[in-house]
Write a structure and sequence with these properties.
By secondary structure, this protein is of the alpha/beta class. The chain is 46% helix and 17% strand. It has a 5-stranded parallel sheet with strand order 2-3-1-4-5, with helices on both faces. Helix 1 crosses helix 7, helix 3 runs parallel beside helix 4 and helix 5 crosses helix 6.
Length: 182
């Protein structure tokens, strides 16, 4: 349990599909031992907008609405874990800015921690075929394109920590995250 007076935390897990963001998020939440924690998948928020095509506007709206949801949880004293396939640094920076700043409301000060989870394309391909989050596997071409795009932005955002989930089992990954956020 967090001590009184400590700031809330926003923990962002980013990376290509199949690197273990959802699995890591579930294990991390069980280790945090908090009564007030929220988990948000921006992929799920993207589905709020029922337009069929993925556009810049749809992506921006998903980040904006995620920030509003996060701020709502922060005002109530929650820590928040966010999962997403951030392959465009500006989108991540936009989300962080919208979490931290609002011209219409008072936002509690919180610490934002960013972790880029990575793995080899072979491991990501294998994990994609046996997804534990009950989502449909991505087509191989889409997966490779997203993988290349995500890996090209690994570590670009200030303060981002890169964790190789090939070399670090989930228990070690969670321990590394815990060490960084405490």
């Amino acid at each position: 349990m967090r001590k009184k007076g400590k700031r809330n935390r926003v923990i962002i897990l980013k990376g290509s599909p199949g690197v273990g963001k959802s699995f890591t998020a579930r294990k991390l939440i069980s280790r945090l031992e908090l009564t007030k924690i929220a988990r948000i998948s921006i992929d799920e928020v993207l589905h709020f907008d029922q337009r069929k095509n993925l556009s810049k506007d749809k992506l921006k709206l998903a980040k904006f609405h995620t920030a509003i949801i996060v701020r709502s949880f922060l005002r109530k004293g929650f820590d928040v874990v966010i999962e997403y396939t951030f392959d465009i640094p500006e989108h991540l920076e936009f989300l962080i800015d919208k979490i931290k700043r609002s011209h219409t409301e008072q936002i509690p000060v919180s610490d934002v921690h960013i972790f880029h989870l990575t793995a080899s394309i072979e491991e990501v391909t294998k994990r994609n075929k046996t997804r534990e989050d009950e989502s449909d596997p991505l087509p191989a071409g889409t997966l490779k394109k997203l993988y290349k795009s995500c890996e090209s932005t690994s570590g670009i955002v200030n303060g981002e920590i890169v964790i190789d989930t090939d070399k670090s089992p989930v228990k070690k990954t969670v321990e590394r995250i815990m060490e960084s956020i405490l």
